[in-house]
Inverse folding.
């Protein structure tokens, strides 16, 4: 079953706030091998002009992955997540994510296309603080493998 | 931190070689919240037609980012970063794991003061991230 084209342009209500913790940033930095003290030492981060330790460039995936749940669990869309492959991912950082941020994500369905029996779902997660300050725009394409693919 | 005056088109960033073992997959799963069993469960991975446990594409993306962040000197200077996920990286159940070779080159100086860097990542000579690039904002 191809995905319903009428979902293009749809957005979902903001996700519950995700509070960015210093230790979570450190843990993520260790996991991707980032060695910068700006991920670990608040003094070093302040000396570099940041309010607190900053997150590595791909940290935003934690928040956008959680935000994807509304799409995956939307019974109307009927996405079979066991057939989903992550096709691409990008992040535009309006500013670095900083420890102490409380981020919400609004998910937008930008396009749905079909190619060689696979559905390609382009989604955009707009991450902002609770006060509405834009922080990161995450874009990804989810490829839903067709039954025969 | 890198300064704009030190950057030219064609500059090659110091190459990077990163090793991914099963332990790294478990650590990344916990850190990122991505617990898809294809990244830690051999039996499950084979059942869905994979050659075995594979690395998270996002882990490869995150590890490859280091070539840019270490060059920039300030990870907060990376204002944009994007990749396409190519062929999967199988991670064997041994101490050697899988080794990814990462290269990067400055390809453009933009009017807004940012620098475009193209990134490649390969495993056993074959590309695992397509069209990977980052925008870096160096100090003026």
């Amino acid at each position: 079953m191809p995905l319903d084209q009428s979902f293009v342009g749809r957005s979902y209500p903001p996700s519950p706030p995700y509070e960015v913790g210093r230790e979570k940033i450190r843990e993520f930095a260790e996991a991707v091998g980032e060695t910068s003290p700006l991920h670990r030492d608040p003094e070093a981060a302040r000396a570099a002009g940041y309010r607190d330790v900053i997150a590595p460039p791909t940290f935003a995936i934690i928040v956008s992955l959680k935000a994807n749940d509304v799409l995956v669990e939307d019974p109307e869309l009927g996405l079979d997540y066991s057939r989903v492959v992550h096709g691409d991912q990008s992040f535009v950082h309006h500013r670095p994510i900083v420890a102490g941020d409380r981020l919400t994500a609004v998910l937008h369905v930008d396009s749905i296309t079909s190619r060689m029996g696979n559905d390609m779902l382009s989604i955009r997660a707009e991450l902002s603080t609770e006060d509405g300050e834009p922080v990161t725009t995450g874009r990804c394409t989810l490829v839903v493998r067709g039954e025969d693919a | 931190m890198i300064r704009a005056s030190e950057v030219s088109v064609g500059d090659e960033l110091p190459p990077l070689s990163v090793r991914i073992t099963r332990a790294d997959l478990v650590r990344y799963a916990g850190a990122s919240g991505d617990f898809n069993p294809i990244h830690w469960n051999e039996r499950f991975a084979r059942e869905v037609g994979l050659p075995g446990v594979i690395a998270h594409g996002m882990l490869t993306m995150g590890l490859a980012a280091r070539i840019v962040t270490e060059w920039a000197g300030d990870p907060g200077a990376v204002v944009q970063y994007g990749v396409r996920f190519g062929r999967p990286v199988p991670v064997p159940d041994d101490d050697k794991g899988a080794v990814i070779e990462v290269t990067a080159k400055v390809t453009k100086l933009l009017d807004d003061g940012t620098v475009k860097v193209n990134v490649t990542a390969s495993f056993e000579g074959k590309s695992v991230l397509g069209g990977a690039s980052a925008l870096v904002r160096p100090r003026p």
